[in-house]
Structures are given as C-alpha cells and as structure tokens.
Design a protein that fits this description.
heterotrimer, A: mainly alpha, 5 helices, C: 265 residues, alpha+beta, Immunoglobulin-like, 2 domains, 5-stranded mixed β-sheet
Chain lengths: 201, 621, 265
C-alpha cells in the first residue's frame, strides 16, 4: 500500500464489495435456515411422538390457526414493501419507512402474543410451566419470530436513516438494499413456515 | 530477510487523533463493561425472585452470562460499526485503518483489531490456552483412572472433568486449524488483502473469547454432570453449572456462524486474479469446506441448547417426557450437528497435511481432484449419518440399516484422502522435517481410527461397543491422532510465517515422539479397556480393567510431557528462535512470497496466479 | 535399471506390468505390505478374543466375529497404506535444504478408479455382513418371542432392578436360565441409562416413559456383568450389578428362593 492512495477496504470496487456482502448475508441465512429447520423438526417430531399423550394434554387451550399467520403478517408486509421499493426507486423512502413500521408493529404484536399465551399451567407449588409439547414449541417459534422482527427492524431503521444521507456511495447502497432484501424475504418465508407448523395442533 | 518496500508497520504515524471513542476501547474496557453488565443483570434479576426455585436460579445465571458476553462486546467497541451503519455515518477510511491496528504494535492484540493476521495470532494463543486447560483436565482424568478406586476426585468432580474436558477440547479442535491458519495464512494463500468482513472477523474471535470465562465459571457453579454431549433429560435435571455450558455453546455457535460465513465468503469472492477453482491450495479448499459445513451444522446445536435453556428457565418441556417432550429430540438435534462437527474438525487438519506433503516430498499433490472429491463427499455424507450415534438409543431401530449404509459409505471419500497422501508419498524422497513426520503419524493414527470406525458403524458390533471406552479411543484416534496431528504439523509449518522465527527443531522432535508414542499407548490401552467392557465416562472401574487403564495412564503422561515440551518450544522459539527466511521450506504457495512481518495489506502488488501451487517435479522416466 | 533400447517400441501392458514389478521399490513395498497385512491379521484374530469377556450368547459371538473379521478384511488395505508410507519413510532425505524434486506425477486415473472400487467393495462386504447379522438377530428374536422369558428392566439413578412378571419376583441381580430366549423390556425411572449385560452382547438405552425392547438367548453358563453405558449423573460408574446364566434347575431354585422371601430380593 502506498501512502498517497486513499484507503478503501481492499481497494475493491463498490460493486464487488456489495456482491460480497450479499453472499455473506445469504450464508448467514443458511445458518438461520438450519435453526428454523431444527424448530420444524422439533415441532413435527414431538407432535407425532405424542409422548405420554402430552403433545396437547386434556384441557389445554391453544392458539387459533390464524394466530401463527397474524404473527407473520408484519414480516410478510415488510418483505413486500421492500420489494416494491426495489421495483420502483421513487417509492424507496416511503417503502423503507413502511418496512420499518411493519416490523416494529409486528414485534409489538408478537410480544403481545407471547405475553398472553393460553397454555401456561401451574404446578403444585403455583409455579408456571408450559403444559405440553405444543406449548413448548409455540413459545420457541414465537421467540424466533421475535428475533427476526427485531433484527429486521434494526436493518430497516438503518435503511430509513441511510435513505436520507447523501454522502454514501450509491452503488454500494443499492447493493445493501438488495442484501437487505434477501434478509427480509427470508424472514417472511421463515414466518410463514412457522405459521404453517403452528397450524398443526 | 527480505527488504521491505515500505515503512514497517510500527513506524507509521498513528492516523487517528487520540480523542475519539474508538481509540480508547480495548480488552480491558470490554472486561469492565462486561462485568458491569453481568453483575448488574445478576443483582437486578435476583431482586424479588424466589431463588429457591431452580428455574429462577437458571434464569438469572443464564441471563447474566449472556449479558457478560454482550457487555464485553459493547465495551470493546464491537458495536461501534453496526451503530455507525445504523445512523448512516459509516466508519471513515482513517477509522478503518485504525481498527486494522495500523501502527499500534503489541497493543493491537488486545483490541478489536480487524487485521486478519492479528486475529490469527489471537486464535492461536486462544487455542493453545484451551488445549492446555483441556489437556490438564485430561491428565486429571487419567490420573484418577490410573488405579481402580477413584482416589483423586469425587464422582461429581470427575463427571465435570469429563464434560468440561470434552467441550473445551471440542471447541479448541473446531478452531485449531481454521482459527489460527484459516485467519492468518489462508487470506494470504489466496492473494487477498484481508478477510471479506474484517470487523466480523474480529467479532468471531472476541465472541469466542467471551465464552472462555463463561465455560470456566461452570467449575464455580458446581460443575456439569452430563459430559460434553449434555444429553437431556440429565441436563434438565443438572445443577446451576449447566447454565455455563449452555451459554458457552450459544455464544460459540454465534462465533462459528460468523467465522464460517466470513471464511467462506472470502474464499469464494476474494481470490487473486487467475486463481481458478482448480488452482486453489488444498488447505484453503479443506478449510472452506469445513467451515461451510459448520454453517448449517451448528445452529441445530444452538437450538438444542436454547431448548434445554428454556426447559431449565421458563419450564417448557422439550425434553421432559411428562409434558410431551423426549430425550430423543435432543439426541437428534445434537447429532445432526454432532457428526458434521467431527468432520469440521478433521478436514482442515487433513487439508493442512495435504498442503505440507507435496512441499516436503517435492512432488505434486497426487490427484487434487480426488482430494476435493474426498472432502466434498465427506461433507455431503456427514449430514446423513447422525443417527449412528443413536443405534442403541431405541429411537427408530428400523432406521439403523439405512444409517449403517450412509455411515459406511463415508469410508469411500475417506479412503480417497488416504489415496491422495500415499499417492503423494509414492516414489518420493521426503525431506524429513517435523511437519512431514506428522504426515506419517497421521496415516497410522487415522488408519486405526478409520478401521475401528467401521466396526462401530456396524450395528451388531455397536451392540457391544456403544458407550464403551472403545468409542472414546476411536474418536480420539480421529480427532487427536488425525486432526490434532494435522494442526500440529500446520503450526510447525507456518510458524516461520506467523512469528518470523523457526520452531526449535530438537524440542519439536522430542515433543513429536513423546506425543505420538504416548498417544498410541494411551489409546491402544483404551481400546483394550473398551473391548474388555469398560463403559466410558466412569470415575471408577472393576479390577479386570486395571492393566489396560494403567497402560492408558502411562501413555497419557507421555503425551502430557510432550505437550509441555511443545509449549516450551513454541514459547521459546517465538521469543528467541532462529530468524526464519522468507520461504524456509521452498514452498510455492503465496504466503511464502510475503515478508515477515507481513504488511498490513499483505501484498504490495496484487499477485496474479498462473498455475496451481504444486508444480514440483520432473517428468517421470 | 532402464534399458533404453526397449523404449523404441511402445511397451505392451504385460511388459509395463512386469517392468513395474521388477522395480526395487515396488518389490520392497510388496514385502512391507505383506508384512503389515500379516501383522494386522494376526492382531485381529488374536487380540479381540483375548480382550473381550466370555461369550455367553450368539449375539455376543456375532459382535466379536465382526470385530475380528473386519480387521482381517481391512488388513490388506492397511498393509498397502502402511507399506507405501514405510517405503517412502525409509527413503528419507535429511538435512537443511530440500531434496531434488521427485517425479511430476499429478494423478493416475487407473489407480484412483481401482482404489475407489476396492473401497466400495469393502464397504459392500461390511454392509452385507452387518445386514445379515442384524437380520439373523431380528428373525431369531421374532421366532423366539412366544416362549421367551420376559424381564422388565428399570434403570434409575443409580441402580438396576429386574422384574420377572411370569415368576412375580423383583430382583437386583440378573439371573437367566441357559438356552432359553429372553426378552428385556427396558425403561427408565428418571434420566437416560443404557442397559448393558456385557457378556450377552446386547445393549439399549433406558428412556423415560418409553419402553425399549431387546432379545437374546444366553447359550452358555457363566457370570454376567450388567452395566450402565450412558452417563446418568453422579454415580454412573457404580450403576452396575452382576448376574448369572445358569442351568434351568438352578434358575428355578433361585426363583423359588426369592419367592420364598416374598418376591423381592
């Protein structure tokens, strides 16, 4: 490195850096996908095993089938809004605000769901526990959704703020939009997968 | 020594004025903030909770441990980058240069430094520390087992020793080659100026660093009774020490995902001009396949730990049969990670030896394509074999046949690895330096590990051998005898590039023979104990196993002395070793074309690759 | 060693093979290979019967056979690998400078193909062996099941207990009549254990609330060790008991003596 050149990471073009970042995020999506696969495995394995007839013990209340999908709506709207922003760059600022709000509101709703789970029972000492494997799996799936909402909201907020900055490299920003698109699409898919699983009581 | 075409790193002016936050953060501030977060969480959560309920204890401890990790990352400045991204004020070139440790001398090793060479050294020291700790525990285990009667430790301490030795070594072995060499050497090998994501590279190391004190805290919380496999429901029942185990794995899984993604991206996207896929050094291929395999593998381990944590904190019932859970769920999730994981450990070690063998035999690597087919075949099959750990669990005996088929077929790609190495040796005149000796040790050890693996994969033989010392001996032959031997060869081989000095040869030879002979005595003794019928993980045993255990322990002491010798050799040579020439082994890979100390961005001029690095030799007559 | 006049004509495959076999290093490799093969065969045949405990059932015999014969089958493969390694090791170069370059052999397709085929054949052999052995066990278990002695085994931290429902006794030692099929129904009272009657060569985990089943037929009289093969907490190492495979008369006497004590040992 000579001292008269300005320092860029690796001297690589924004195009290259952007492409690389998307690859990295997609690999992380593989990791997250494996986690979600594990959750699906847990759900259906325990459901089919029905150990001790306690997948859904007698008298345990469940969420409705719609609950899982309602929890995923924020993720789906976010992915669609982001896609709209990518199709039509004029919409980008508005769409990124929509993405952020959808994820934020979705997170709040998910929190509400987690705080009002119908299947918590109490043991002899009055201590709460999740009654049945269905209940255990539900809280895990909701937690994963929550994680996706929060991480997505962070990314979305960044994109909103960055949309108003003028000094950023436009090529790189364009790539970051696409990279974020990969993530938003994935969390929407994951939300739908979780909802499908959750509809199997 | 070669002449440097620019000023050495340390004499350049420090680019950033001392006032900004980024210059003030280091490991010390990380520890302080981490401790504050940890104790803050602990006391805040304790207040008003009924601490006689184990669920509450687990909640508080688990949260405190995870908050320590988070607090450390805040304190060391890991979150500056993401935060600056969030508010749209990306790090300036000056700040990035500062983060890369430009002109900071030794201090950069204690900072959130993005230079891949610094991270490599951090990993090296970290790995050696972990191997030291894990090895000490192994010595205590063997000492306790030297004679029947469990005289040294109580059963509780023994179980904790077994579990913590296991997990410490597994973590250390997962990163033993891809950590130091994957970070330090590999980017230079492919002609890159740094990793694809330098800040994430620093993150992967420092996240891992935070796991070490968490794991150590298990000792102060009563230890773990479960072994490193942490089978449920035993782990649901275990005491507060178990939380340390869970937190460690959760933190470690984050580190692996980040590191795996980073290395994979680097190799895919940042190879020098002309480095087509068939010109990539085999170590790079191996390391990449290994970490790429880790990306999908480890999250299921993390999931299993999160589920255990949920059972223990908020009283879910994933593994509690009374409320519809099942230990088999844990076993499945664990081994879906667990079997790929052993290949994550093995492949980089073998790949390092494949890198080394052509250099010392002065012949091209025999059948580069077979090597890649071997690695890829192993990686592909390894995700389909997990239930061979569960033949005797009672889970789906009808699947034992199919899993036996996939498991035994993994010997075919494994056989290719042997072929590549013996093919390289064939008609060769090897230069018998320390790294080369490891190739021979590997062939012997891995042969034994492989053959015994075929018995174990066979369901009827596993009827007898499962859960016995035989299994322990088998996987030590593969993990230690093969993977560790490869990593040790890598250490000796790349030591000149990483430290600028040659490793002391005499001490190296002594260490090598003590370790390898001791190792074989140790684990042949253990095969014997296993065949005689001694279960694994027992603190005490009957008199019939007396001789085999005594043999094992004798071997263990030899390994222990060898390891201490090796450590001495490393420390001594690092400080006062012979100054190394730029390319002491006459190798053709790119890392030997850069001087020591390696410049900040590795290459003054980007290299252009015109052939693979194995162009040794003259035409056959 | 090489006669240059011969190279004027392209050698026939036969000539190439005989030239290959006449090389000194090849001959040495063959000798070394034969040596290592014999060593492994001898070790396989000698070591396992010597190490492993008494064989009290066909299942145990099958386990031992697999270990012996797989070692024997893999001996030639081990022999080849070790011979080539040893041959090159003996040919080593020492000193501080690298030796001259060797031959630039980058690959040799026939060798790769032969190597892969041999390992596939080896695997198929091992698989067929394993499958047949598994199947034999399963068929035998199915035919034996009707007149089998049933023993309900319960693992708990840290002891085994055995309930013989037909005899209506509960014991802490595992006594079995010789030559009568046995069916073990295994369950755990707490965490996972693994039921391992060592000399019978069978094993299965004890799980909470789910019964696992194994079958065997003790065919020799002798002492039995029963162990736990799955780490189950504090006193895992001490979760063992003993037993006896004995003649039917002895077994019946033992049962009566326990029934006389009220059915509990």
């Amino acid at each position: 490195m000579s001292t008269d050149t300005e320092f860029h990471i690796h001297h690589d073009s924004a195009e290259k850096v952007g492409r690389r970042e998307r690859l990295g995020v997609r690999l992380l999506i593989v990791a997250d996908g494996s986690f979600v696969f594990g959750m699906m495995f847990s759900w259906f394995y325990l459901r089919n095993l029905n150990e001790n007839n306690a997948w859904l013990p007698k008298g345990v209340h469940t969420f409705t089938t719609a609950s899982g999908y309602t929890a995923a709506i924020g993720l789906i709207i976010a992915a669609l809004a982001h896609r709209a922003g990518e199709m039509n760059h004029g919409l980008r600022r508005v769409s990124s605000i929509v993405v952020f709000l959808a994820l934020l509101i979705g997170a709040v709703y998910q929190w509400h769901q987690m705080a009002h789970m119908p299947f918590i029972a109490h043991d002899d000492n009055g201590r709460p526990f999740y009654n049945g494997a269905y209940a255990s799996n539900w809280v895990l799936v909701a937690g994963a959704n929550m994680f996706h909402y929060l991480l997505g909201a962070f990314v979305a907020l960044g994109l909103v703020i960055r949309g108003y900055r003028t000094k950023l490299d436009p090529v790189l920003e364009e790539w970051r939009q696409r990279t974020a698109g990969s993530w938003f699409t994935w969390i929407a898919i994951s939300g739908i997968l979780c909802a499908i699983a959750a509809s199997f009581k | 020594m070669t002449t440097l075409s620019h000023a050495p790193v340390s004499t350049r002016p420090i680019p950033n004025p001392k006032r900004s936050l980024i210059t003030r953060l280091n490991m010390g501030t990380g520890i302080i903030v981490g401790a504050i977060f940890c104790w803050g969480t602990y006391y805040a959560m304790r207040a008003g909770r009924d601490m006689t309920d184990s669920h509450n204890v687990n909640k508080v401890l688990l949260a405190s441990m995870l908050m320590w990790s988070f607090g450390f990352l805040v304190g060391i400045g890991a979150l500056i980058g993401p935060f600056r991204w969030l508010i749209g004020k990306d790090l300036t070139a000056e700040e990035q240069l500062y983060l890369a440790g430009d002109g900071q001398g030794v201090k950069r090793y204690f900072k959130y430094c993005t230079d891949h060479k610094v991270v490599g050294i951090q990993y090296l020291v970290g790995v050696m520390t972990m191997l030291g700790v894990g090895g000490t525990m192994a010595m205590m285990i063997r000492t306790n087992l030297a004679t029947p009667g469990s005289h040294l430790v109580t059963p509780n301490v023994y179980n904790s020793l077994v579990g913590l030795h296991g997990i410490t070594m597994i973590i250390a072995m997962i990163i033993v080659a891809t950590g130091p060499f994957g970070n330090y050497i590999m980017p230079i090998m492919i002609g890159a100026r740094d990793m694809a994501f330098p800040r994430l590279n620093a993150l992967s190391w420092w996240v891992l660093f935070t796991a070490i004190p968490v794991l150590c805290s298990a000792w102060f919380l009563g230890g773990i009774p479960t072994g490193w496999t942490a089978y449920a429901p035993l782990s649901d029942q275990a005491g507060p020490g178990m939380n340390a185990f869970l937190a460690t794995i959760i933190i470690f899984a984050v580190s692996t995902a980040v590191a795996g993604m980073n290395i994979t991206t680097t190799v895919i996207a940042m190879r020098a001009k002309g480095m087509k896929w068939n010109r990539v050094p085999i170590f790079v291929v191996g390391a990449t396949i290994s970490v790429a395999l880790a990306i999908p593998a480890f999250p299921t381990f993390m999931l299993a730990m999160i589920q255990t944590g949920m059972d223990r904190t908020i009283a879910t019932g994933f593994y509690d049969a009374n409320v519809g859970g099942s230990g088999w769920l844990y076993a499945n999730l664990f081994w879906i990670m667990g079997h790929p994981e052993v290949y994550v450990i093995l492949i980089p070690g073998v790949a390092a030896l494949m890198e080394i063998a052509p250099v010392f035999v002065r012949k091209p690597l025999f059948s580069y394509n077979a090597a890649i087919a071997g690695f890829a075949g192993i990686a592909g099959l390894s995700v389909l074999v997990w239930a061979h750990h569960m033949y005797m669990s009672g889970w789906m005996p009808s699947l034992n046949g199919p899993f036996m088929i996939t498991t035994e077929f993994i010997s075919v790609p494994t056989g290719l690895l042997f072929l590549v190495l013996v093919g390289t040796l064939w008609r060769g005149r090897p230069w018998m330096k320390l790294p080369m000796l490891s190739v021979y040790a590997f062939l012997w050890n891995f042969l034994i590990g492989g053959i015994t693996g075929v018995y174990l994969s066979d369901v009827p033989a596993d009827n007898y051998l499962h859960g016995s010392m035989f299994v322990t001996a088998h996987f030590h032959y593969t993990l230690m005898g093969a993977a560790f031997t490869g990593a040790m060869a890598g250490l000796v081989y790349w030591f000149p590039k990483m430290t600028g000095r040659m490793l002391n040869e005499r001490a190296g030879y002594i260490a090598f023979w003590l370790i390898q002979i001791g190792f074989n005595v140790l684990f042949l003794g253990m095969f014997m104990a296993g065949a005689q019928g001694q279960p694994r993980r027992v603190a005490d045993y009957a008199f019939v196993y007396e001789h085999s255990n005594m043999i094992s322990t004798a071997g263990a002491y030899s390994v222990g002395i060898g390891m201490i010798t090796l450590l001495w050799a490393v420390v001594h040579s690092w400080r006062n070793g012979k100054i190394a020439p730029m390319n002491p082994w006459g190798a053709k890979t790119l890392e030997w074309t850069v001087p020591y100390p390696v410049p900040l961005e590795n290459f003054d001029v980007e290299p252009i690759i015109t052939s693979d690095p194995y162009g040794y030799g003259k035409a056959a007559n | 060693m090489v006669n240059h006049t011969e190279e004027l004509l392209p050698p026939t495959p036969g000539q190439r093979v005989s030239k290959f076999l006449s090389r000194k290093d090849v001959r040495q490799t063959f000798i070394l290979g034969a040596f290592f093969t014999i060593v492994f065969v001898v070790l396989g045949i000698w070591v396992y019967p010597h190490w492993m405990p008494n064989v009290l059932s066909k299942e145990m015999q099958a386990d031992e056979d697999i270990m012996i014969w797989f070692t024997v089958i893999s001996a030639p493969i081990a022999g080849v690998i070790l011979a080539i390694a040893m041959e090159s090791f003996l040919n080593m170069h020492r000193g501080d400078t690298p030796p001259e370059d060797g031959i630039a052999m980058r690959t040799h397709t026939p060798v790769v193909i032969i190597w892969s085929s041999v390992s596939v054949l080896f695997i198929i052999l091992a698989l067929v062996w394993g499958m047949v052995s598994m199947n034999t066990d399963a068929v035998k278990a199915a035919t034996d099941a009707p007149n089998a002695l049933v023993v309900d085994v319960t693992g708990s931290q840290w002891a085994w207990s055995f309930n013989y429902p037909a005899q209506n006794i509960t014991t802490h030692t595992l006594n079995l009549p010789v030559d009568r099929p046995v069916t073990f129904n295994i369950i755990s009272a707490d965490v996972n254990h693994s039921f391992w009657p060592v000399q019978l060569g069978v094993k299965v985990d004890a799980n909470r609330l789910t019964t696992t089943v194994i079958h065997t037929t003790p065919d020799k009289i002798g002492v039995l060790d029963v162990k736990c093969a799955e780490l189950c907490g504090l006193y895992h190492a001490y979760m063992e008991t003993s037993g006896q495979v004995e003649s039917t008369t002895d077994f019946n006497n033992w049962v009566s003596s326990i029934q006389a004590q009220g059915g509990t040992q």
